Amino acid sequence: METKNGKASKPVTEKRLRFYIETYGCQMNEYDSELVRSILLESGFGEAFDPDLADAILLNTCSVRETAHNRVFGRLQSLDRLRAKSEKVVVGVLGCMAQSLKMELLENSIYVDLIAGPDSYRSLPSLIKGTLEGSGKMSAIDLSEFETYDDIYPSRLEGVNAWIAVMRGCDNFCTFCIVPYARGRERSRSVESIVEETRKLADEGYTQVTLLGQNVNSYSHDGRSFADLMNAVSKVVGLKRIRFISPHPKDFPDDLIDCVASNTRVCKHIHLPLQAGSDRILEMMNRDYTAEDYIRLVGKLRDGIADIILTTDIILGFPTETRKEYEDTVKLVEEVRFDSAFIFKYSERKGTVAARRWKDDVPPEEKKYRITRLNEIQKGISLELNRRFIERVMEILVEGPSKRNPDEWSGRTDGNKMVIFPRSHQKSGDYIKVKITGATANTLKGDIV
Ligand code: 5AD
Ligand code: SF4
Fold first, then answer.
1. Which of 282, 369, 439, 446 has minimal Cβ neighbours within 10 Å of its Cβ?
2. pLDDT given at position 138
3. 34 phi/psi in degrees, rounded to 5
4. Which string of DSSP letters, residue by residue, matches 203-251?
């Protein structure tokens, strides 16, 4: 039923439909789930926080590595239990697996009622209702060159950080990566709409935002660069910390280094995916920089930004990578000394250039050896670097109870280091000073001063 203003209205007797959403993968998916939540609430749905109570169960999926993909398949199988209880429940797959699942959906080889790709979330209310009304399986997977959801204000759950997607998609086509196929072409939102979203967030009490993009420093809108955007966002009254992920090493211009160095609200933490330390592998990956370029950039960052915290992503066992080339990555890790690193085994993704051109020929046990050893080396470096903070007094933004021990709380430094401290009367969102008393490879311990 439609009202004059085009909004759906429901007879009072009709049951309000409820959705439940589960998010896999990266922070962009977290943000997208908040967009989906907003779209569905706005069109009259209610949110269920338990899948057993939902009319529509939505999985916002990730396909970047096989493990994430398998986890979603496992979850879909376990949802059969609900299907057995209630014929009516709709199970939907959103996000990066949408493209690759289309065939399986048509062939009925998986239990899914609807599929919506990352650019189709506006049609979710009608897709869900259509499926519930018996129109059969539905899908909307077309990618758009324009959709940025610029006008939708995400419905965020609690937390001290607000994600803001400033650009979507990726045009880099690193040969191992499914993202350009799953999420389409790069497009950026306007500076004005991002500043407006930040203003609303600051009014709601958020003091930290993280600007998100698959390749966030390719941001460009009406001649304005990513540094211009960060400087504009940083003027929003009430905001204290601005973070951003993930930049690509090939587009890190000097104005961005200056912005991070001189803008006191921009956090001094850069996550700079390296991927590999061998030039032959970097070229096969289509990364567009050499190991030397990367080291030069790190030198500039360290010269320009005092106390910069550097973290990275690395892929081991790319097709044809030799032990010697792996050692090049190890050497680079030892030279750069990252604060921390996410290290992944290469995972072949169907449809990517790497999957089409090269066999996934590094044996699983060799990949395991390489990842275990590099993780050990990185752990040693992280521990040494974390120890340098002992005795220092640092400001942290309080997040909440620590996962391990609810009597202890956690917060993060400007450089994104997690600090665990014994709670007295702090609340989430407070900024407090702590003196660091201990360090492990992953966290710092501190006492409130
Ligand atoms: N195999 C392994 N790791 C991958 N990543 C992206 N694609 C793959 C793949 N096919 C990693 C990269 C990227 C991070 C988000 O995921 O390191 O930076
Ligand atoms: Fe994937 Fe490369 Fe784009 Fe990052 S920059 S999303 S790794 S294609």
1. 369
2. 87
3. -70, -35
4. HHT--EEEEE-TTGGG-EETTEEHHHHHHHHTTSTT--EEEEE---GGG
Q: Looking at the structure, do residues 164 and 240 belong to the same domain, yes or no?
A: yes
Among 313, 343, 350, 362, name the best residue to mutate to test ligand 1's pocket (greatest count of ligand atoms within 8 A of Cβ).
Answer: 313
* Residue located nearest, by CA, to atom 1 of ligand 2: 177
Domain count, the chain: 4
User: Could you report how far apart the first and last alpha carbons of the chain are, in Å?
Assistant: 60
Among positive and negative, which fits the CA dihedral 322, 326, 327, 331? positive
Query: What are 1-35's pLDDT values in tens digits?
Result: 333 333 344 443 467 999 999 999 999 999 999 99
- At 100 the pLDDT is 78
Residue 145 lies inside a defined structural domain of this protein: no
State pLDDT tens for residues 186-231. Answer: 999 999 999 999 999 999 999 999 999 999 999 999 999 999 999 9
Residues 6+ apart with CB under 8 A from 73: 110
The last residue of a domain, from among 88, 112, 140 = 140
User: The domain containing residue 427 runs over which residues?
Assistant: 393-448
Q: Please name which ligand lies nearest the alpha carbon of 172.
A: 2
In a domain, 194, yes or no: yes
Confidence band, pLDDT 50/70/90 cuts, at residue 408? very high
pLDDT given for residue 109 in this prediction: 66
Whether 368 and 421 map to the same domain: the answer is no
Confidence of residue 247 (pLDDT cuts 50, 70, 90): very high
For the CA of 347, the nearest atom of ligand 1: 1
User: Is 0.90 surpassed by the pTM of this model?
Assistant: yes
Given a contact cutoff of 8 angstroms between Cβ atoms, the answer to whether 258 and 266 are in contact is no
Give residue ranges with CB within 6 A of ligand 2.
170, 172-174, 177, 179-180, 214-215, 248
Give me 183's structure tokens.
């999420």
